[in-house]
ATP-binding protein
Amino acid sequence: MAAGNSRHSIAGAISDLLAGTPTHPSAVLLEGEPGIGKTTLLRAAAAEAGALGFTVLSTTGSVAESMPSYAALADLLAPVDEDLLSLLPAPQRNALSQVRRPERGAGPTDQRAVAAAFLSTIRALADRTPVLIVIDDLQWLDPSSTAVLSFAVRRISGPVRVLAAVRSDEVTSARWLTLAWPDAVRTICVPAQTLGAMHAMIQRRHGHSLPRPALTRIHRISGGNPFYALELSRTVDWIADPDATLPPTLAEMVRTRLEGLGADTEAALLIVACATTPTLNWFSAPLRRKSGM
């Protein structure tokens, strides 16, 4: 069951997750609506864990990557040294090599070997340092990675921590996050931001405060959602037009903004949306070819 908490107490719960010298694994699952601040909490936790000497393995689910096999698992394995992987039995080592660097025509990967190899890797890492596995947008993990993670987290032991975030309307997709120890997984519902916290966030982001009536309207319309509030705060010039009409929903605001884009901008956005991991070089290449450069 998800516990209701203030943002301060959530930060405390995450710090507790990372504190001390744990003898068995535990996990915290953050649930909340899109834009409520789950990613910010996960990034802060990853930085805190790194400063405490944890090995941090992280991945973010993506709609664009919800089908390719082992996309999330490859992200988690990216920081792992080759020296450690070289100690795995040959079948496991070969399976992980195919996950990290897929080769065309190599045939299907043995999921049992991948799962055993990932578990062995986590155990080997935990023998060296505490381990934190961070999973954002858990609801969009690819099925192959989910199957491997489900196998591993039920069998891990020692100083291993899991911190994950999932959308409230997709929380059933996190049912696989079950550890061997009773009550080892704590689910926390990320609450709406208070008016005071929203004021501080907007001031920090824009470098100035908004009139209190405008801030109150933003808080009411956004429902305390930080992402929605930031978007609303830059929608109009609040000093010049404190009574400006605001879109009633985030979807309506995004729709209005997109309708104002030109054809060239829409084409550029389409190109970026088609790429799994767009980079500046990747994006500029077709433009150079189009312009004959």
Q: What stands out?
A: The CA atoms of residues 88 and 120 lie 7 Å apart. The two ends are 58 Å apart (CA to CA).
